[in-house]
């Protein structure tokens, strides 16, 4: 009788031990899977990725100084491998680097993308800088606006920076004293200067 009881006890202990080990292993495997999911690489946008932007309000250079910022919207989804990473309509913060407005000399307005507003936080980004410069009539010499390779128009389009300025990235001119400005609905493109890891999804 004692042998039977002993054998039953041993079997029960063995069963409980096996069940405990199975549960422990299952828990460890589940935890490992969760950790692996958590450490998955965030998608990254490469240098040269084009951001399509659109102004929702008129932008007038004389209203800004270096260090100021204003907001535009993302005009197209930013995607990677068929997945939308940054949706159209996302608020984009623009940084003013230079804003010089002179009556007799050339005026300059330079901007870059500061970042995206995601869940009320600024997700910073580094892009190329775009510059618009008016003509200079000093000394009766007309100097064309510095719009071209590596610089480009700040905002392109047929309704761009006023008369003759930077349509489609071509060299444009504004007369001295004219204010550099862009109406609401003006579109622009900026390329990433550094890779952008989209780790806020």
Describe this structure in words.
The protein contains 1 helix and 13 strands, in the order αβββββββββββββ. With 201 residues, the chain is an alpha+beta fold. The protein has 2 domains: 1-40; 44-197, Beta Barrel (Lipocalin). The strands form 4 sheets. Strands 2, 4, 7, 8, 9, 10 and 12 form a 7-stranded antiparallel beta sheet that branches. A two-stranded antiparallel ribbon has the order 1-13. β8 (108-118) and β9 (121-124) form a beta hairpin. The longest helix has 37 residues, at 2-38. It is elongated, with a radius of gyration of 30 Å. The termini are far apart.
Please give the structural blueprint.
Layout: H1 2-38, E1 44-45, E2 50-54, E3 59-60, E4 69-74, E5 78-80, E6 83-86, E7 91-100, E8 108-118, E9 121-124, E10 130-133, E11 181-182, E12 187-191, E13 196-197
Helix content percent band: 10-25%
Tell me what portion of residues adopts beta-strand conformation: 25-35%
Number of helices: 1
CATH-defined topology of the largest domain: Lipocalin
- How many structural units, i.e. domains? 2
Following the backbone from N to C, one meets helices and strands in this order, namely: HEEEEEEEEEEEEE
Q: How confident overall, as mean pLDDT?
A: 72
Low-confidence stretches: 139-154, 156-173
Radius of gyration: 30 Å
End-to-end gap: 66 Å
CATH class of the largest domain: Mainly Beta
What can be said about this structure in brief?
This protein has 201 residues and is of the alpha+beta class. The chain contains one helix and 13 strands; from the N terminus they run αβββββββββββββ.
């Amino acid at each position: 009788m004692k042998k039977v009881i002993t054998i039953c006890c041993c079997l029960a202990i063995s069963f409980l031990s096996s069940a405990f080990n199975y549960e422990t292993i299952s828990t460890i495997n589940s935890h490992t899977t969760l950790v692996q999911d958590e450490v998955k690489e965030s998608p990254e946008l490469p240098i040269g990725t084009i951001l399509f932007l659109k102004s929702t309000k008129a932008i007038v250079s004389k209203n800004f100084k270096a260090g100021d910022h204003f907001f535009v919207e993302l005009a197209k989804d930013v995607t990677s491998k068929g997945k939308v990473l940054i949706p159209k309509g996302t608020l984009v913060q623009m940084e003013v680097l230079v804003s010089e407005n002179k009556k007799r000399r050339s005026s300059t307005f330079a901007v870059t993308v500061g970042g995206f507003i995601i869940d009320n936080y600024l997700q910073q980004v580094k892009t190329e800088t775009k510059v618009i410069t008016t003509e200079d009539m000093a000394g009766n010499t007309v100097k064309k606006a510095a719009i071209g390779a590596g610089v480009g128009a700040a905002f392109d389009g047929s309704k761009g920076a006023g008369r003759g300025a930077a349509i489609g990235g071509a060299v444009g001119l504004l007369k001295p004293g004219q204010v550099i400005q862009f109406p609401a609905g003006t579109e622009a493109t900026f390329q990433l200067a550094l890779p952008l890891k989209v780790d806020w999804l």
